[in-house]
Amino acid sequence: MTIMVDQQQLNVEEFEKLAMSLERDEMGVRLEYIDGRVGVKPMPDGDHDEIVQWLLKRVLTYRRDLSVYPELGLKIGAYRKGRARPDAVVAPDRSFAGHGEWKDPASVLMVFEVTSSDSDTDRRDRKEKRTAYAEAGIPIYLLVDRDACECVVYSSPVGGTYLSSVCVEFGVPVELPAPLEFTLDSEPLKDLTR
């Protein structure tokens, strides 16, 4: 479900207050504010959680100097007017010490999203977030698309778009470009789609 809100009716500061109050009330809801719209991010299912763990374990196997931050709040989009909670963020250790709830993405090396079964996943994960992450200059956006049973690696952000995208089926190694430069075994993802 997405709630459409005119940007002049709800600014970023008002969004942050709304998001904080809903999350503190333990409504089981995560809100995002992308391209002037408030979106409700669905709560993940068990397979989704296991896919995030798949990434976490593999990143830490290759790069002990990095951390994987699930559901981290990021300031994204043109002029930092957006707020998103990627399924996971990869950044150097201690990148966000002393930061508030919504972090600047300057130290982020990769964002990671897993598609959901809701009707908004096409617009949100495949389009809007891809653009917002590129606008923020995040070097890599890894999308695990459970509907298509494939991983898409977007890289080389320039002018609000990723210049490179590589798509591989589950089971095929996923090559991550610089600044990460390692390969993920996507074979385990075959068992995490229904």
What is the CATH top level name? Alpha Beta
Instruction: Please give the CATH architecture.
Output: Alpha-Beta Complex
- Which class of secondary structure composition applies to the elements? alpha+beta
In angstroms, what is the radius of gyration? 16 Å
Q: What's the CATH H-level superfamily name?
A: tt1808, chain A
Shape, per Cα inertia axes: globular
Compute the average pLDDT.
82
Overview of the structural elements:
- The protein has a single domain, classed as Alpha-Beta Complex (tt1808, chain A).
- 23% of the residues lie in helices and 34% in strands.
- The chain is built from 3 helices and 14 strands.
- The strands form 4 sheets. It has a 6-stranded mixed sheet.
- Helix 3 links the parallel strand 9 and strand 10.
- The N terminus is likely disordered.
